[in-house]
Amino acid sequence: MVLISGGTFRMGSDQHYPEEAPAHRVTVDAFRIDRTPVTNRQFKEFVRATGHITVAEIVPDARDYPGALPHMLYAGSLVFTPPDHPVDLKDWSAWWTFLRGANWRRPYGPKSNVSLLDNHPVVHVAYADALAYARWTGKDLPTEAEWEFAARGGLEQAEFAWGDEFTPGGKHLANTWQGEFPHQNLCTDGFARTSPVNEFPPNGYGLFDMIGNVWEWTSDFYSAKHEADATKACCIPENPRGGSEQDSYDACQPQIRIPRKVLKGGSHLCAPNYCRRYRPAARHAEPIDTSTGHVGFRCVLRG
Fold first, then answer.
1. How far is 108 from 174, CA to CA, in rounded Å?
2. Residue 8 buriedness (CB in 10 A; 0-12 / 13-18 / 19+)
3. Which of 104, 160, 214, 263 is positioned for an S-S bond with 296, CB 3.0–4.6 A?
């Protein structure tokens, strides 16, 4: 783990997606954070020690999904399945498939395995899986503020974790998407899917993969916007934990009351034409019951 000394910084951004605004000052205390996302090797040790069964390996309870037909309820996870032609970017089902038998052991489906991916981030982990691992290690999941402070690497309000230029000197500093998402992947950064967690340079705090590769769970409930700056300097929020469970529900699906948490960091599927969320300020809502092939996590230790 890496010790982050803590401090006051301006969180969020007024320049990009509306959920990142407004930029506002917060203070976080010192904490330690994992140098890399949790890997398949580490998660495998956890499962061997505890017998943990991930959400993706359990048949969903029909009571949690009103209206779902019985044949639609099976153990599985969302796997990226790229089309071979341009599609409507508003329809995520054009590239995501809920695949029976996909889980952290079989990230691309039942015929795949992680035997050659030990140093890649574990994926297909829902929020409960990430939290269970964190507690097994005596740690916790980071708050959104802790995560963003660490991701900035000491650079105040820089666009990216390494500065204001995305590919300085033409060099890729994170695993993201090159080409037209989702049908054209040029792989000029060397990877079509996840990459080893220490493949790209660390940020100023010595942390790897704070941008790209996989999104990472935080402990904060999702809210549509940040709260504005406090009016007095003495009232800058300290160690904030954003949102509430009630406010985190997806208003577009009122019949399904699944809380959502904040994801941070973007992933290898973030592309200039679709999801420019490979930045410290970027954030995304994820239902706690959902697992996908591009979401992982890392842990923190406080005190």
1. 22
2. middle
3. 214
pLDDT of residue 230: 65
Q: Answer whether 0.90 is exceeded by the pTM.
A: yes
Residue 198 in 3-state DSSP? Answer: coil
Taking a C-beta distance cutoff of 8 angstroms, is the pair 261, 284 a contact? no
Residues 96 and 78: beta-carbon distance below 8 Å: yes
pLDDT along the chain (303 residues), means of 10: 96 96 96 98 98 97 82 93 96 96 96 95 98 98 98 94 96 97 97 97 98 98 86 76 83 80 98 96 96 98 94
Please enumerate in sequence order all residues whose Cβ is within 8 A of that of 61, keeping only pairs 6 or more positions apart, or say none.
none
What are the phi and psi torsion angles at 152 (to 5°)? -70, -20
DSSP string, 252-292: T-TT----EEEEES--TT--TTT----STT-EEEEETT--B
* Residue 254's CATH number: 3.90.1580.10
Tell me how many degrees the CA angle 184-186-190 measures, rounded to the nearest 5. Answer: 140
pLDDT at 232: 55
How far is 76 from 291, CA to CA, in rounded Å? 9
How far apart CA 220 and CA 241 sit, in angstroms, is 6
* Residue 160 CA, distance from chain mean position: 16
Give the ranges where the chain is alpha helix by DSSP (H).
40-50, 127-136, 144-152, 245-248
**Is 218 within 8 Å of 263 (Cβ atoms)?**
yes
Q: What is the pLDDT of residue 43?
A: 98
- What is the total count of domains within the chain? 1
Q: In the numeric block, which tokens belong to residue 56?
A: 């993706």
Give the residue numbers spanning the domain of 228. 1-303
